Amino acid sequence: MIAFTALCTVPAFASDGELSLVAQNFKEPSPQECDYWVMKHRGNTQGQAFGSCVPPVIQVYASLGGASAGGITGAEFACNIGPDAGADPGYFLIEFPNFTATNILGRAFVPPDPSPRGMNISWSDCQTGDGSRVLLETVIVFNTAACGPSAKPPALTFGGAQHASPSNVFFRCPLFTLCDGPVFTKVCLGTNIVDCQTPVPPFPNASKCSTSGGFKLNAPNNEAGTCSNLKGGLAVNTIQSDTWSNVKNLYR
After folding, report:
1. What is the mean pLDDT of the chain?
2. 162: how many CB neighbours lie within 10 A of its CB?
3. Could you read off the pLDDT of 15-30 as tens digits, one per residue?
4. Does 196 have pLDDT greater than 70?
5. 3-class SS string, 82-149
6. Shortest CA distance to 133 belongs to which of 60, 63, 227?
7. Is there a contact between 20 and 213 (Cβ–Cβ < 8 Å)?
8. DSSP letter string, 202-243
9. Which of 69, 21, 43 is nearest to 176 (CA)?
10. pLDDT in tens, 141-165
11. d(CA 48, CA 176)
């Protein structure tokens, strides 16, 4: 898996769609969803209701825009976990693809590094989503490292990337398929799309590469990301819990 690449700053509406990785933070009185999470270990939430030693439940959305604004029939992507392809101790992940999908092949977050991974998810009809986004999957994060007043759990980053074995070698990027059957046009996601090497002879720079979306867990110095208020209460497919035990009980 290629290492996670930070997205560059570009004007709005510059992409044909994005992956969005967020976790819901039930801060009162305005619940939010954020692209970062802090597993507080000393009882200080820094104004956020992350909970004591509670890991996140990450929801992965297809955020529609540009060419995909009218809807999608599917997505192909993987997740880069950590800064490289080495093992990332301290966490265990379980993912639950959107059960409404017609076809689901592979997983984007498991198996863990250094194993390759990738998901293809598709629907038989056009998906326009709720608020211009379509739920792709939910990822449950379990911490296996110590966490407490004297034990800070490790940091970890997640980033949307190409499938380990792209279905089309000219699309080495996370992608959506559009609602224009029987063609089902593929569009790369993100704002950092570049020409890159096609992995077949004569190896021309005829493919497209990009990354899209990111999530930070316990970033150094509790580096903040972005949060937005949940409109109309809680978002669709929310998993709400007072304790992490309750979250786990949902899947027993």
Report:
1. 85
2. 27
3. 999 999 999 987 666 7
4. yes
5. CCCCCCCCCEEEEEEECCCCCEEEEECCCCCCCCCCEEEEEEEEEECCCCCEEEEEEEEEEECCCCEC
6. 63
7. yes
8. T--S-EEE--EEEEEES-GGG----EEEPTTSSPTT----SS
9. 69
10. 999 999 988 898 999 999 999 999 9
11. 33
Total Cβ atoms within 10 A of residue 111: 10
Distance CA 61, CA 70 (A): 15
Contacts of 246 (CB under 8 A, 6+ apart): none
Q: Where are the domains of the chain?
A: 18-249
Residue 174 confidence (pLDDT) above 90 = yes
Three-point CA angle 38, 44, 45, nearest 5° = 45
Contacts of 63 (CB under 8 A, 6+ apart): 17, 18, 19, 20, 132, 133
The encoded tokens of residue 8 equal 């560059």
Write the pLDDT tens digit of every residue in 225-250. 898 887 644 443 333 333 334 444 44
The two most distant CA atoms of the chain are separated, in Å, by 59
Q: What does the block give as tokens for 6?
A: 């930070």
Q: Give the pLDDT score at 39.
A: 87
End-to-end CA, the chain = 32
CA distances from 230 to 32, 90, 96, 138, 180 (A): 5, 30, 22, 17, 32
pTM above 0.90, yes or no: no
| pLDDT at residue 46, rounded to an integer | 55
Contacts of 98 (CB under 8 A, 6+ apart): 121, 134, 135, 136, 137
Q: Label residue 170 exposed, middle or buried (CB < 10 Å: 0-12, 13-18, 19+).
A: middle
